[in-house]
Design a protein that fits this description.
Blueprint (H helix, E strand, L loop, with lengths): L1 H25 L3 E6 L8 E7 L5 E8 L4 E6 L5 E7 L2 E9 L2 E6 L9 E3 L2 H32 L9 H22 L4 H10 L7 H9 L3 H4 L2 H22 L10 E3 L5 E3 H4 L3 E7 L4 H17 L4 E7 L9 H11 L5 E3 L8 H5 L7 E6 L4 E4 L3 H12 L1
Parallel strand pairs: 1-7, 11-12, 12-13
Antiparallel strand pairs: 1-4, 2-3, 2-5, 5-6, 7-8, 9-10, 11-14, 14-15
Helix pairs in contact: 2-3, 4-7, 5-7, 9-12
Length: 387
């Protein structure tokens, strides 16, 4: 009888374990368990994401009980999230994705907490371990260089410079090497997404890394978003490069107030000011009298102006009339064009205009010789080039 009872108990335990494992596999969404030794009952923990402005926004909260807490929910796309806990300084980044995730909290330094349980977080831990090691080595080399410089060693000829340059290059190449070895891991996609925020990134290399991902990952919903981010970032970078001083200004055509089409080539003079503004832009309107003064003084000497209005915001009831009224009120007697599409204006995009007023001064060949000059600085530069 005892033998039968023992067998029944073992069967029940085995069945319970199988049921628990089955539940884990079938869990829909994320299940983040936190172990927080040293954190008192009733303290609140937060699961945060980052909004478009880079601010931390809580998407879930949990109460610490018996030094443990749980976040449970669904996430549309895997993302880097941040754990914060009241009374514990700092934040801890990890990959929030569907499945079970375990976080062991270090209450003394939350950044030294550990995470595991999902493939994305295992990859994150591996990547950060190697990158932190290289960062520490670079920091030590720089300290040695500074110390030797203070001791009188010539910095420019110090062999430490070569080591620092080699290690810096290695750190720059490491994310791409990691992606190459982890083509099916969502953390590789998250690394690529992070690269799109670096306006100095080589986006040909970034796109190459994206295209090397396994098809299943590359065809995911998140991958489609990241692919678009790469293209947008590359377009912005190309626009910045195209509007550096010394570059030939991008040509364009746009509608005039009377509905005709006017191009930059139609109005170019000995010196041409390409001026981005809008009727709603107070700094633009305050600057307009100065532009009028400069135009009236130097137009006969070869100064031409073409203004591109970024009217057309959602808050404007009648953007065209607002544009025309501002031209008349401010006595802007030169050439005007606008697609009335706010910052989505294709000309503004071609010149990477992120804020207004924005100006580009072109010589007779259409080469950019100065940009974003206002007030006396604008008049002085025009005088220098035309007098």
């Amino acid at each position: 009888m005892k033998k039968i009872t023992t067998i029944l108990v073992l069967c029940l335990l085995f069945t319970a374990c199988k049921t628990e494992q089955k539940e884990k596999v079938q869990r829909d969404g994320y299940y983040v368990t936190g172990n927080a030794p040293g954190v008192y009952n009733g303290i609140r923990a937060y699961l945060n994401s980052t909004d478009e402005r880079g601010r931390q926004v809580a998407i879930d909260t949990a109460i610490v009980m018996n030094e443990k807490f749980v976040f449970e929910g669904k996430v549309t796309n895997p993302q880097i999230s941040f754990l914060t806990i009241n009374s514990v300084n700092g934040l801890f980044p990890f990959v929030l994705e569907d499945g079970e995730i375990n976080i062991d909290v270090n209450a003394d330094n939350i950044r030294n907490s550990t995470v595991g349980g999902s493939d994305g977080n295992k990859a994150l831990v591996e990547f950060e371990k190697e990158f932190k090691s290289m960062s520490k080595e670079l920091q030590d080399l720089n300290k040695q260089l500074n110390l030797q410089t203070m001791q009188g060693v010539e910095a420019s000829s110090n062999p430490l410079n070569t080591k620092i340059a080699d290690l810096t290059a290695k750190m720059g190449a490491y994310p791409f090497e990691f992606i190459e070895k982890n083509k099916d891991n969502v953390y590789s996609l998250i690394l690529i997404e992070g690269m799109t925020r670096n306006n100095k990134a080589n986006f040909d290399e970034v796109l190459k890394a994206f295209n090397s991902l396994d098809e299943g990952l590359k065809n995911s919903a998140k991958a489609q978003i990241v692919n678009t981010q790469i293209k947008v970032a590359k377009t912005k970078q190309d626009a910045v490069a195209a509007t550096e001083i010394g570059k030939l200004a991008p040509t364009f055509s746009a509608p005039t107030p009377d509905g005709k089409t006017l191009s930059l080539n139609d109005v170019k003079g000995k010196l041409t000011l390409v001026d981005f503004w809008a009727s709603w832009c107070k700094p633009c309107r305050r600057e307009n009298p100065n532009v009028v003064k400069v135009y009236n003084k130097y137009h006969d000497k070869g100064l031409e102006i073409i203004s591109i209005s970024l009217d057309g915001s959602r808050t404007q009831k009648d953007p065209k009339n607002a544009w025309l009224k501002a031209i008349e009120d401010d006595k802007l007697t030169w050439n005007h064009v606008s697609n009335l599409s706010y910052f989505n204006d294709p000309v503004a995009r071609a010149y990477n205009v992120q804020s207004i007023p924005a100006t580009f001064l072109l010589d007779e060949n259409g080469t950019i010789v100065a940009k974003n000059l206002r007030g006396p600085a604008l008049e002085n530069k025009v005088a220098e080039l035309l007098n």
